[in-house]
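Summary for the steering committee. The consortium agreed at its last meeting that each partner would contribute one worked example illustrating the joint modelling workflow. Our contribution is presented below. We chose a case with several input lines so that the handling of multiple components could be demonstrated. No manual editing was applied between input and output; the record is shown as generated.
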Amino acid sequence: MAGNIKGLLDQIDAAARAYDVTEIEIISRKLVEHVRENIATHPKSFVKELKIALGTFDRPRAEELCSKLAVHLRSRATPYPFAESKTILSTLRRKRYFDLIIEVADVLIQTGQDEPNIRRQYAQAMLDLGYITAGLGVLQILEQDCLEEDNDVELAETRGLMGRARKQMYMDAAADKRPGVIIRQRLEDAVSDYAGVYAAKQDHIWHGINTVALLERAKRDKMPLSKGFPNATTTAKTILKRITSKKKTDLWDYATAGEACLALKDYPQALEWILKYTQENKYADSFEYASTLRQFEEVWKLDDDKKEHAQILHLLRAALLRQEGGRVEIENPTRNLATAAALEADKQFEQILGKERYKTFQWYRMGLDRAAGVAQICDRAGNGCGSGFLIRGADVHPSIEQKWVVVTNAHVISNDLAEQSSMPAALPADEVRIRFEAKDPNKEFEVDKILFSSPRTELDCTILSLQSLVEHENPYPIAKRLPLVGKNQRVYVIGHPRGGGLCYSIDDNLLLDHEKPKVHYRAPTEGGSSGSPVFNQQWDLLALHHAGGMNMERLNGKAGTYPANEGLYFQNILDAVAAKLG
Amino acid sequence: MPHVTFIHGIANKPPKEKLLENWEAYLAQGGLDLAAGGVSTSMVYWADVMYAEPVAPDADFESVEEGLGTAATDEELAWVEDLPAKEKAFVESFREKLGFDIESPEGDHYAPPPLEGNEDELEALNFEAIPLPWFIKRRVMKALLKDVHHYLFNAKFSPRPGEEYQVQDHIRRLFVDQLKQDTANREGPHVVVSHSMGTVISYDCLKNVPDCPSISAYMTVGSPLGISEVHDNFKPNYDKRDAFPSDRVAGDWVNVYDRLDPVAFDARIKNDYQKGGNQVVIDEKVRNSGKWRHSSYKYYGQQALCNHLSKLLTL
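What follows is the complete predicted structure of the assembly.
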């Protein structure tokens, strides 16, 4: 490998001495290709490349790198270095590419890099993907090995994960309404895992707080546990005292202290800690905030209807949406929008947040407000086929009399037979039912008429009026210009993902490029369905989302393809409407 | 594409790219995300003309953005001694106006209580009344005095061994060259946004430098332009009835001030910079938080400033 590089460098040197520019270019390309192909043999460079790919949500490049690593590992005489192995897995984890962790960790372990940390991350990825039994199996073997090797640090982490696996089993079983005795045993096992580690050493506050969370959950679920477990309130107080007496606190301490205050029913203090936690956004990413939010919603069962709970939940959601790759899911839009609006108007809450955090909150609230105008497009049977959104008729064209019209893709609704016979097939207007989940999920609207349509090969847009009046306020401001490319600009897609299930999701996307009328952006996860509105960072309507794929052709004459979502610039749609309607 | 050319103010600064990034972020905090609105930006950076090296990029901006808290910016005034008589007279007069020779009644760390009553009723801000500790006020005023003098009197200055500048000539060139670059082949509004001493430089160039390009609109923030020692020393002669740089500013001039900003001494300037005898400058008052009211980031985080800039850029 090194020999090849040296040979190529010698050739470049010779070409340079001969002033042969063409030859230099040819050999340089070979050199780049050689380095790319053999990147895995240089662990530090590999980690750097992987971080670049993950930083831009470039999943295919991450997959390619992981495949190259796997090939290299199989031909390697010695185990891959531990430090880089660990970093590779944790980096993949921060972007939630759990399947790639399993792919890489499996080969790492097979080829000799079977340090407990690697096996633990392997098991953790299984849990994250929902393979609880398999993950638990790996953890149980690891637990024994840690005991034999007196590896207390890894033992504590392993048992913590075992607790997490059993906690998940309890939650799943409870959700499935399994017989009480089975559910109770799972909960008891989970508490035992966490409490055992915490009892052995109270430095393990993560295990301690999970013990508290589960004991409180047992109380709430009226699930009697065996005696011998610690008292939740006392443990919460001890944890809190330990954190406040620490000379140096970190991100997780804040979240843990917040949980301890929940156990003590001290909501103002819990809010204070979560404020600190969300303020440390330089050191956190969307993964951390999403995990905490999930813990608060699923384990602590915080409820948006209670003001003191809603404050904490919305604060976490706002922090999550502000982070790169953040995705906020809105399952009960009517309630979520109302509680967030009430908090925005609450002067006391404004004071608690302080000026800057209040602005972040206002920004998030504005995003939620945009969701109020998003529609779900369904067929007659009520199956979700896409998204759409309300826009003021006068903003589309002065001749449009209707106050509000709906915009969606032509490949979702069209009376054009060509659109109806293409794949995916568009619905004819008279077969469409439209719902606005944030207003009244039970009310359906029918199409009055199609006012404008442009085929999927052009602007992929249908604008239509409704048969009955829809109550709506706050029209979307329309962006007058495209954002700058290369300035780490984000765009936000609000839609009904995968045709149903969740009501809305707001996805953070990295703006990749634009060439009128196309705008390209990329999110870490799939999301946003056809016909969704795409907003710029100021929540101005920027584009109509219409497609996404792993092999989108690049824009502005650049060769090749890349994974991207594609939207159509809304100003171009307005121009086309003006050209047609005069 | 619309464009904003920024120019910074007194005292040392972080490196150019970092300063520009920070200013964009502050405006976004105030509700104006320039990149999202398709607005490009540039920075006229002149801190390296006056200082040997920039402030560390990751420094705490709350305290050092304007050079506060760093011993290096507590300017010695030895440079005054060898000045020609006319310049010395200017310095003395300006020094008296700024008032930083006044002894603190309670020691250097004494900070007067917040002003009571209506800030708007203040004619000009009095050094003693500024609610900041004495030693900080003195640093700021010394930095302002030095920057204003060196610029207006085109002093020779050497920030680093082997480099010497005629301060006004060099900074004027930096500003004009940046503006030329920013106006070339550009469509859409072009606005200059200047802060603190940057308002003196940008005004001087727009008014007095023959080859300075024209712009669509102008914004001054936390400006000392209202101080008579400043405008009386613009060359050629300053005439308040025709002081608006009409030849090079096609649209509005918005001046944003805080009455307790110690640099924006005579904060309202519409009377001092008239257009054909008419008061057309839009003086916009804001109230920055905390004691230190001159910070660019506090100004840029103001919604009123962002709304004005948004309008000037026709966003």
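Confidence is low (pLDDT under 50) at residues 60-67 of chain B. Chain B has one domain: 3-146+187-312.
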